[in-house]
Amino acid sequence: MTVLRDGALLRLTLQRPARRNSLSWPMTDALVKTLTEAASDDTLRAIHIRGAGDDFCAGADWVTTNAGDRRPRTGDLVRRVPHAGHRVIELVQTIQLPVVCSVRGWAVGLGCNLALAADFTVAADDAVFWEPFLARGFSPDSGATWLLPRLVGLARARRMLLLGEQITGGSAQDWGLIHQAVAPADVDTATEELLATLTCGPTVAIGLTKQALHHGLHTTLPQAMTQELFNLELSCRTSDFKEGLAAFAQRRPPDFTGR
Prior knowledge:
Layout: E1 2-6, E2 9-14, H1 25-39, E3 46-51, H2 62-65, H3 76-80, H4 85-94, E4 99-103, E5 106-108, H5 110-117, E6 120-124, E7 128-130, H6 144-161, E8 167-168, H7 169-175, E9 180-182, H8 187-199, H9 203-216, H10 221-235, H11 239-249
Parallel strand pairs: 2-3, 3-4, 4-6, 5-7, 6-9
Antiparallel strand pairs: 1-2, 7-8
Helix pairs in contact: 1-4, 4-5, 5-6, 9-10
């Protein structure tokens, strides 16, 4: 994986095109470490995740993981996965920065769920989203059974998880699975336009809104509104709040600094 700091934007590229950017344990560990550090970096305003070459990510690299004669101890997955693939999904969901994925080619398993966990995913209309777990003989992980029903409902979640149906980028947009599907040649342009909007936004308020959206999935309406009040109290103390009011009064676009 390559990590590039581009002003207030953090660009992460899954760099293993010969294996469709499937994630080895070291790559997943590096992704966890990078996202954890980004979560406390006050100079960042957005994160972009993409795959090198023709594909986004073919999921966890089980072939490499299970190569060799040495058999891991019983319970290896239970010990390791919560700190690896599962932790990646948790971080993308909970980090108080907007996360954008751009998807070409295959987004499979963990790679598919990474794209679904992002705040915004821009995909080529011929990209393929696939949850192949049962086709490989094991049950889903990395948040698939949580993400899919919430995004597309139980019926379509069953189609993807129980039947292994492959979904194109165009269908993913129609289903509400992703933010936008565009022609393959337009993926970079559409992604950069979105990133430009997000990196110029009120970063604290964006992060608090993201937090409230996820909090609201598990609570009652009164509990959600209570959380909104606490977030409102925080966001009203930012410089961006003052700038937003001034811009409104002066009838001009706001110049947010992310503070």
